[in-house]
Amino acid sequence: MNISKIDYEIAIVGGGICGLATALALHRKGLRSVVLERAESLRATGAAIGVWTNGWRALDQLGVGPMLRQKAMLIRGKEEHRCLKRSDLIEALAHGLPPQTIRFGFRIVSVEIDQLTSFPVLNLHNGGVIRAKVVLGCDGVSSIVAKSFGLKPPRISPIIERRGLTTYPKGHGFSNEFIRITEKCLLVGIVPIDDKLVFWFIDRPRLPRDSRVSREPEVLKEAMVEEMKDFPAEITEMVKNSDLDSLSYTQIRYRAPWDLLLARFRIATMTVAGDAMHVMGPFLGQGGSAGLEDAIVLARCLAKEICLDQSSNDRNLRIRFEFGLDNYIKERKTRILMLSTTTYLVGLMLGTSSTAKMLLILAIVRIFFGNPFSHAQYDCGHL
Ligand SMILES: Cc1cc2nc3c(=O)[nH]c(=O)nc-3n(C[C@H](O)[C@H](O)[C@H](O)COP(=O)(O)OP(=O)(O)OC[C@H]3O[C@@H](n4cnc5c(N)ncnc54)[C@H](O)[C@@H]3O)c2cc1C
Which string of DSSP letters, residue by residue, matches 291-350? Predict the structure, then answer.
């Protein structure tokens, strides 16, 4: 094996929202990368995703904002809030990439640092080996790259979420609002995507029976309709008429703020982004947008260092890359700590039935974070 051969300058593990956005951001800065995705095609699990002002700013930097705005209606409120079909977002990001950037069927099973070159080595499920100068772990909640850093696995929340899309060929008639309905232990959220398509989610605490219930879409739908007997007929009808292939069931996972505070996010020229770094509960609808922000900051920091050093000296380049990654982590750490703390507190608030506890958490959020929507006003800056 030729130990000095480098297959790729920048290898991104994972072709989800964050991995594709990072590849696109690097491309727009003139940097070539490769996205190694374990699946055989692009995945868009989870039906749809709410994107707020901060996420739209990042999408504008990536050059896909104007096109995506046409696919999602503006939801009423003080911030720009639209709900995108995940497949629209993933396809828009992938479409902007040069051919051959995404490599499907590349499952990374472990990552190490080559003792001789100090650059990362990725081991594939089929015994193959990939060498890169920089590895960006955008491989989601069960990240192999994060594990290789010694990051603790994300925690499991007691909340589960079911999500889906319902198409109304003659128009849905919902107003352009984010509707939330709570009934007993169920929280139902409804957000229109366009005039004919509605995204909805149903949250509740996990029950022992959940481990026995099949995740087959028909079974999922039947169980949800049964749970929603006491809801208004138009809401149960919405679930009854949902598109089967859009349904998903998720056990919520998160990295606690104190885990993030103590974590180390760089080893040699490897780092993590998106859920691999900071998976959080869906209570603010910010996980995906935070991954888009990561992409912009990561590309900006790496590009700045590469522009400063055009030499072909590997040692200098490695130092530059390490410096760029450190700047990325420095810039992102406060932001993700704030976001995950707010998400954690909002999750606690939604999970309590005690009004006193709820008011106390609300007061804490107000005192420490001011306007509860300030997280959506964040600007990750230019690429
Ligand atoms: C119920 C729920 C609702 C949510 N709602 C919102 C919302 O409204 N708004 C919002 O902004 N965010 C929301 N989020 C969060 C958002 O979905 C995630 O933050 C976002 O999808 C994470 O993107 P990612 O690219 O980091 O990870 P992922 O989307 O998980 O992508 C990781 C990719 O890496 C690949 N991969 C994994 N392991 C390997 C490997 N070993 N080798 C190669 N490839 C690998 C996977 O196949 C996948 O394609 C929600 C999350 C949940 C759970």
Answer: HHHHHHHHHHHHHHHHHH-----HHHHHHHHHHHHHHHHHHHHHHHHHHHHHHHHHHHHH
State whether the beta carbon of 192 lies less than 6 angstroms from ligand 1.
no
Which helix or strand (DSSP H or E) is residue 148 part of?
helix 144-148
Q: How far is the CA of 266 from the centre of ligand 1 (A)?
A: 20
pTM for this model (two decimals): 0.95
pLDDT score of 79: 92
Q: Examine residue 126 and state whether it is found in any structural domain, yes or no.
A: yes
The domain tally of the chain equals 2
Strands 266-267 and 248-254: what pairing?
unpaired
pLDDT at position 6 = 65
Is residue 282 within 6 Å of ligand 1 at its C-beta? yes
Pocket of ligand 1 contains residue 13 by CB under 6 Å? yes
Distance 276 CA to ligand 1 centre (A): 8
Determine contact, residues 156/251, Cβ cutoff 8 Å: yes
Distance of alpha carbon 155 from alpha carbon 158, whole angstroms: 10
Nearest atom in ligand 1 to the alpha carbon of residue 289 is: 11
Of 215, 231, 253, the position where a domain reaches its end is 253
In a domain, 353, yes or no: yes
Residues of the chain with pLDDT under 70: 1-6, 309-312, 372
Whether residues 283 and 295 fall in one domain: yes
For the chain, give percent helix, strand, coil, nearest 5: 40, 25, 35
Residues 201 and 320 in one domain: no
The CATH number of the domain holding residue 221 is 3.30.9.30
pLDDT at 312: 67
Quick one: 194 and 305 in the same domain?
A: no
What's the domain range around 214? Answer: 157-253
Q: Residue 105's domain is classified under what CATH number?
A: 3.50.50.60
Query: Atom 21, ligand 1: which residue's CA is nearest?
Result: 288
Measured by CA distance, the residue closest to atom 46 of ligand 1 is 14
Q: State the pLDDT at residue 4.
A: 44
pLDDT in tens, 347-370: 888 777 788 888 888 888 788 777
Same domain, 368 and 238: no
